[in-house]
Write a sequence for this structure.
RNA sequence: GGGGUCGUAGCGUAGCGGUCUAACGCGCUGCCCUGUCAAGGCAGAGAUCGCGGGUUCAAAUCCCGUCGGCCCCG
């Protein structure tokens, strides 16, 4: 299992490559749909195969609460349980420390949660999170982290980073135990440091010096900060990283953002955005985005995106999909989610081709000329 | 023919003398969503309170008439 860089942008930092995992090779840059509860919302595994999705993200914390780690272990692991054959990267649950802040207490040892499902109390530690992931049998493991909110002071971000680094060290001990027991995961510890370049640098140095990392999960972005701060901080963090390790930017994934992230050297991304906005009617097309709920779509007997080859665009009109949305027919969530995921895959494919052909900047410019022209 | 009851935004309803610059749900229009507590959230448009008259300082609200719907009796 390894990561190999295949091509680099001659003028920038973008690169393409292949990540070999326990469940197949993943060409990068890659966008990974989010399957928090062992399901990409509204999308079946048949759909994932039809899309050609090689990698997805699931969530240790959510699966631990329901259906329970024991059950998935008894099923033969997460791949067998959900019958997905591609790579599965599992998030630690660290993000839920932030997003469900009213339900938890953090201390130096770990996090005490109250379940959002039944209110029961649970304890998540660095070791526990590794143990959950070994039971799930996912391909890429992350670590329990603390994501400081935006805005935070440097002192707050530093405290969160220190905690995260301590948890990473403890995760390594647990990881080694799992490896001794025969597990062969790729280890993607989570990087924090807020929006402070020195802290991000320290975080990378910590990995370099003390952690046997296969790749890095870059956390703490897209939490409400201004975009230029996102990119400048990310750019700085990546500048300290070695070229031979894959960089996974957590939770980023609008069309604008994936282009920008890849241009800064990101290899992997996940985001709920394409599937979430699909469930709320927003469609991405080569000519920008629109909402299927908007009145003019009711009478448009044309595909969502005339240049899209996905089955939804080949078969159904906007008028029909508009009707399904208004009627809240359940299949609409599948159809719109599928199209948006297909669109994201298209973008990633364009990027990989561009990198192979050495014309990344030109392709990017061409993409946005059409994208920003609008409907 | 007599008696009763109801008539408030596109639809269904609330309000039944001053707090009504008329509320709520659905629908409609638009925006938002970035390691999913999310088939969600926010905002907006839309009503001379059936019509006419009266009482009152003040009427969607009380009275009279009228038109329309529904129910009961004949």
């Amino acid at each position: 299992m390894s990561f190999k860089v295949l091509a680099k942008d001659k003028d920038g930092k973008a690169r393409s490559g292949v990540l070999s995992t326990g469940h197949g090779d993943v060409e990068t840059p890659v966008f990974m749909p989010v399957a928090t509860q062992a399901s990409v919302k509204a999308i079946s595994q048949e759909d994932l195969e039809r899309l050609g999705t090689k990698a997805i993200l699931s969530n240790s914390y959510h699966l631990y609460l329901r259906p329970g780690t024991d059950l998935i272990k008894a099923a033969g692991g997460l791949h067998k349980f959900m019958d997905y054959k591609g790579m599965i990267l599992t998030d630690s649950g660290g993000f839920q420390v932030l997003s469900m802040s009213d339900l938890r207490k953090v201390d130096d040892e770990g996090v005490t949660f109250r379940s959002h499902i039944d209110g029961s109390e649970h304890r998540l530690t660095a070791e526990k999170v590794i143990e959950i992931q070994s039971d799930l049998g996912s391909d890429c493991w992350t670590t329990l982290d603390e994501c400081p909110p935006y805005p935070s002071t440097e002192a707050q971000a530093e405290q969160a980073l220190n905690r995260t680094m301590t948890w990473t060290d403890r995760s390594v001990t647990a990881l080694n135990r799992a490896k001794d027991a025969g597990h062969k995961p790729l280890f993607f510890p989570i990087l924090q440091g807020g929006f402070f370049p020195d802290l991000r640098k320290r975080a990378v140095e910590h990995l370099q010096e003390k952690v046997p990392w296969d790749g890095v999960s870059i956390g703490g972005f897209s939490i409400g900060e201004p975009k230029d701060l996102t990119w400048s901080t990310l750019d700085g963090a990546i500048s300290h990283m070695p070229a031979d390790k894959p960089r996974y930017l957590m939770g980023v994934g609008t069309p604008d953002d994936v282009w920008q992230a890849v241009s800064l050297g990101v290899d992997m991304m996940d985001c709920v955005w394409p599937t979430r906005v699909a469930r709320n009617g927003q469609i991405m097309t080569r000519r920008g985005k629109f909402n299927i709920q908007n009145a003019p779509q009711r009478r448009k007997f044309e595909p969502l995106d005339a240049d899209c080859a996905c089955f939804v665009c080949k078969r159904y009109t906007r008028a029909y999909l508009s009707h399904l949305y208004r009627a809240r027919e359940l299949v609409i969530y599948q159809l719109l989610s599928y199209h948006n995921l297909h669109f994201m895959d298209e973008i990633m494919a364009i990027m990989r081709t561009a990198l192979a052909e050495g014309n990344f900047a030109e392709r990017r410019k061409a993409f946005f000329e059409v994208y920003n022209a609008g409907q």
About this structure: The mean pLDDT of chain A is 96.
